[in-house]
Amino acid sequence: MFDSLTNFFKEWLIKAGISEETAVIITDYSLFILLLFFSYLSYFIAKNIITKGIHSVVAKTKTTWDDFMLKRKVFNKIAFLVPLFLINFFTDYILNDYELVFDIINKLVQILIVLTTISLLVGLINSIYDIYNTFNISKAKPIKGYIQVIKIVIYILAGAAIITILIGEKNGFKWLASFGAFSAVLMLIFKDPILGFVGGIQLTSNNMVQIGDWITMSKYGADGNVTDITLTTVKVQNFDKTITTIPTYTLVTDYFQNWRGMEESGGRRIKRSINIDMSSVKFCDEAMLKKFETFHFIKDYISDKNKKLQDYNQKYGFDGSNLVNGRRQTNLGIFRAYLKEYLKRKPEIDTSMTFLVRQLQPGENGIPVEIYVFSKVQDWALYEDIQSDIFDHILAVIPEFGLKVYQNPTGADFKKLAN
Question: 326 pLDDT exceeds 70?
Fold first, then answer.
């Protein structure tokens, strides 16, 4: 049937006054164009069958494994193989007399088949990984490392297959045997580029570093933004405008800190403490409470807290004449409540993120009261201004609560003592 169609079209061209040689060329290339059209049509049909048929079946099933395969577009990639196999099969009949053109098209189609197959296999492996992660055992025994090894093996085999197609080796991978000794020399000479290439693949596949990321790597004195990622090096412009060059592979094998998560979160952490002299912490008497009630931020807090404490003390019959009996407010506790309200009302602070005003372990330098909040502003200079404003206010307001900041004696202290 195929030969009959070819002969009919060729004879028609000859009858139209075209030479036999030209008619053969026009016939062959016309058939090849027709093949491309039918190949595209086959892709369109296969895609619709997959989209409407398989997708509808997957949507009705109760299992989840097919949903993951659908998410990874495993079924869709099968549609790409249909036209490629058609072209690969019929090109041998149509362009067999045109050695150069046939060789180019045949190799191109075979490479596309390899790449599509690899994409299909990787999608299938990713689906298996997604399915495995739905089980509780995945937390105790993660398999991401094994998945990456399998992918690397697949990529290596794909690369070898593509090279085999390009060099026209008909005996499969036998060329690898002669390549063995040469590859050992290459690995010795190009050790750093090879390590950099492997490191670059790991950095990219795991999304560890991108251009523009702020990274810190103390071992190499790097603290700034990534400006360039090459085969062997990563360039970091530090905040003092110096340039640090780091071997690409060390970012995989060594420790570094990437601040991208902070930038993507929309906040920047403020974590700083101030030490309070323990001897200045005391119970609040009536005079102190009346004074603190004049502080706008905490007047409601003090009245509510007083009511709760009075109810508690009355319930258990505590004698209020002695401050030790029952529960009482302290100046340090009220001070922490004040800091919370002050920070909540500061527009630069993001209260939707972690928000803590806490005491740390008391020590020889007093009681550390730590501020652990996040600023909405990430710009370094503005962030430092916000942080400084907060602690300027804290240092100024501490004496109003009858508290003292702990610090080691200075020369002025000794001079006062001497006088």
Answer: yes
Cβ-based neighbour number of residue 22 at 10 Å: 11
- Checking if the pLDDT of 280 tops 90, the result is yes
CATH architecture of 268-414: 2-Layer Sandwich (3.30)
Contact, 389 vs 318, CB < 8 A?
Answer: no
Give the global pTM.
0.58
* pLDDT on residue 3: 60
Tell me the pLDDT band of 265, cut-offs 50, 70 and 90.
Answer: confident
Contact 173, 160 (CB under 8 A): yes
The predicted structure's pLDDT at residue 314: 86
**pLDDT tens per residue, range 89-127:** 777 776 766 777 777 888 888 888 888 888 888 888 888
Closest CA to 401 of 313, 318, 339, 314: 339
Three-state SS for the chain is CHHHHHHHHHHHHHHCCCCHHHHHHHHHHHHHHHHHHHHHHHHHHHHHHHHHHHHHHHHHCCCCHHHHHHHCCHHHHHHHHHHHHHHHHHHHHHCCCCHHHHHHHHHHHHHHHHHHHHHHHHHHHHHHHHHHCCCCHHHHCCCHHHHHHHHHHHHHHHHHHHHHHHHCCCCCCCHHHHHHHHHHHHHHHCHHHHHHHHHHHHHHHCCCCCCCCEEEEHHHCEEEEEEEECCCEEEEEECCCCEEEEECCHHHHCCCEECHHHHHHCCEEEEEEEEECHHHCCECCHHHHHHHCCCHHHHHHHHHHHHHHHHHHHHCCCCCCCCCCCCCCEHHHHHHHHHHHHHHCCCCECCCCCCEEEECCCECCEEEEEEEEEECCCCHHHHHHHHHHHHHHHHHHHHHHCCCECCCCCHHHHHHHHC
pLDDT of 33 reads: 79
What are the residue ranges spanned by the domains of the chain? 2-189, 208-265, 268-414
Q: Give phi and psi for 143, each to the nearest 5.
A: -120, 15
pLDDT at 336 over 90: yes
Q: Is the predicted pLDDT of residue 325 greater than 60, yes or no?
A: yes
Average pLDDT for 283-305: 91
Assess whether pLDDT exceeds 90 at residue 395: yes
Q: Which pLDDT does position 274 carry in this prediction?
A: 95
Confirm or reject CATH 2.30.30.60 for domain 208-265, answering yes or no: yes
Give CA–CA dist 234/246, Å, rounded. Answer: 5
